[in-house]
Amino acid sequence: MQDYGPIFKESRINRRFSLKQVACDDLSISQLSRFERGESDISLNKFLLALQAIQLSLDEFMNRANNYKKHGQKKLMSQMAVYHYQKNVQGLEKMIQEEQKKLEKDFTDIQAKLNIILFRGMICQCDDTRTMSKEDLDFVIDYLFQKENWEIGDLILIGNFYTFYPTPLMSRMVREILKRVDYYSEISTNRNLVECTLINMIEICTERGELEEASFFEKEAEKLLSNERNAYHRTVFLYEKGFLKYAKGDFSGIDDMKNAIFCFEVTGAINHAKHYQSHMEKVLK
């Protein structure tokens, strides 16, 4: 209930109600103010009285709360992506600290726990001296396989943890995603995540020498990237196709990798250009 305070405040202000107008004999202004700041909780009865005072039903509020949480998670993922490409370990560690505060308030907050593990994974990808714990990796797998249907957050986990699990396990999960054509074909956010996951699978399978698997995911990615809708993913895909070509002995793949890096440079995506330049240099050693 405590997490609902800031959301309630936003709803109250949007509906032009003052704290004084919402307060009553059973709910003081100071109690309400602390609740809105997330500093204290209030009982369900008091919360329902507050909703009634701003003329908002419980169903309407819960819809707003769910959307609020989804928006907050999207912002977190966007920030994580920026820090990851910048290799900003300090920034990722600060994000972990914020999620740990959420867990301290509510130890049942699974999303905060998953976010912490995800951010640790990003740090490991930025710093080769860091390793993921077996406990964290087992927690993620147990969580994923207990769910009947994977949602956006689950696709993000799968798409970013591909380096930490054996290829057969990752391949199995991604193939399961591909069966859900209805889930990603018409929803752009889901489609973007599936595209990203397929591209990541091409890279990790190629790095591990599992070229048949890499070729399978290349064909699947080609189906989704057959138009010019997502220029960023098409550029990364060009790089990964070049990497796979090179791994198969076709040296024209080097030109594809270089062309992709050039595309990032001319479009101002400097962090991406540096990331793939560094990867190519390691590949060609």
Automatic annotation (TrEMBL):
<dbReference type="InterPro" id="IPR011990">
    <property type="entry name" value="TPR-like_helical_dom_sf"/>
</dbReference>
<dbReference type="InterPro" id="IPR053163">
    <property type="entry name" value="HTH-type_regulator_Rgg"/>
</dbReference>
<dbReference type="Pfam" id="PF21259">
    <property type="entry name" value="Rgg_C"/>
</dbReference>
<dbReference type="InterPro" id="IPR010982">
    <property type="entry name" value="Lambda_DNA-bd_dom_sf"/>
</dbReference>
<protein>
    <submittedName>
        <fullName>Rgg/GadR/MutR family transcriptional regulator</fullName>
    </submittedName>
</protein>
<feature type="domain" description="HTH cro/C1-type">
    <location>
        <begin position="26"/>
        <end position="61"/>
    </location>
</feature>
<dbReference type="GO" id="GO:0003677">
    <property type="term" value="F:DNA binding"/>
</dbReference>
<dbReference type="InterPro" id="IPR010057">
    <property type="entry name" value="Transcription_activator_Rgg_C"/>
</dbReference>
<dbReference type="InterPro" id="IPR001387">
    <property type="entry name" value="Cro/C1-type_HTH"/>
</dbReference>
